[in-house]
Amino acid sequence: MDSLRDPEHALVVLSGGQDSTTCLYWALSRFAQVSAISFDYGQRHRVELDAARTIAAMAGVGHTIIPINTFSALGGNALTDQQMSPDTGPDAETLLPNTFVPGRNLIFILHAAAWAYAKNIRHIVLGVCQSDYSGYPDCRDDSIKAMQVAVNSGMDAQYTLHTPLMWRSKKDAWMLARELGGDALVNLIVEESHTCYMGQRGQREPWGYGCGTCPACRLRAAGYAAYAQALADLGQNCPKG
Ligand code: ZN
After folding, report:
1. 142 C-alpha to center of ligand 1: Å?
2. Is the distance from CB of 159 to CB of 151 less than 8 angstroms?
3. pLDDT, tens only, 88-143
4. For 161, phi and psi rounded to 5 degrees?
5. Helix (H) or strand (E) holding 228
6. C-alpha 110 to ligand 1 mean position (Å)
7. Share of the chain above pLDDT 70, in %
8. Terminal-to-terminal C-alpha distance of the chain
9. How far is the CA of 130 from the centre of ligand 1 (A)?
10. What is the pLDDT of residues 71-83, one digit of tens each?
11. Dihedral through CA 61, CA 67, CA 72, CA 77, nearest 10?
12. What separation in Å is there between the alpha carbon of 213 and the centre of ligand 1?
């Protein structure tokens, strides 16, 4: 199978969540060399970065953590502002959830491309998704394509931004993980990846750890339930359901 792999080097933006972990394994299945990059942007909970560290180590890929400490100074969102709590509904004016960190993915892409530049890495893999997303406009296909144009022009380089989950539902993201690494990878994602906005890792649910009630947990739980149902429909059992 190795002869079918792209001989080039890919950089995965790894948050430590379900989607970017799936994308890490997607990249490993396609590229000869894979590295991961995470951003320490003042997230409310360090558990996310810890998950990214663990997942990169388990996958055996080099992992770099870049500090970006400007988001909390910019303010106005529940992921970096300790005074705000992640809510369940959209802001009345912007219709965006208050977990929206304005431009976060755009800033991540810019930093990832800048880091990759000198290393001659031109494939950047992102776990963003438009079809089953949390309402963040910088996850949309148009935003990513615009950033590809921006970094290629601004750095006079030829990057390709890969978004394997862009048009997949959360259920299909679990399905992709199963295709890539079987039940072992699904179990790894359930056990090690972190999604919960509240940073909770207490109770183990079929879909992993989390509070179970924040928007991120609900999206992940619903996706896993649909995945488990799809497997049941196929007459297959979910691992450790
Ligand atoms: Zn939660």
Report:
1. 28
2. yes
3. 455 555 555 666 677 889 999 999 999 999 999 999 999 999 876 666 788 899 99
4. -95, 115
5. helix 215-233
6. 28
7. 84
8. 31
9. 21
10. 777 776 665 655 5
11. -20
12. 5
- Can you tell me which residue has the tokens 């000869």? 32
CA distances 205 to 20, 165, 183, 187, 200, Å, are 20, 23, 16, 12, 12
From ligand 1's centre to the CA of 218, what distance in Å? 7
Cα(181) to centroid of ligand 1, in Å? Answer: 26
Q: How far is CA 156 from CA 79, 115, 117, 123, 150, in A?
A: 33, 14, 10, 15, 9
Which region holds residue 86: left if phi is over 0, alpha if psi is between -120 and 50, else beta? beta
pLDDT at 22 over 70: yes
User: Per the structure block, which two tokens stand in for 61?
Assistant: 């890929």
Tokens of 238: 């979910």
How buried is 161 (Cβ within 10 angstroms: 0-12 exposed, 13-18 middle, 19+ buried)?
Answer: buried
CA of 210 to the centre of ligand 1 (A): 5
The CA 87 to ligand 1 mean position distance, Å, reads 11
Record the pTM: 0.89
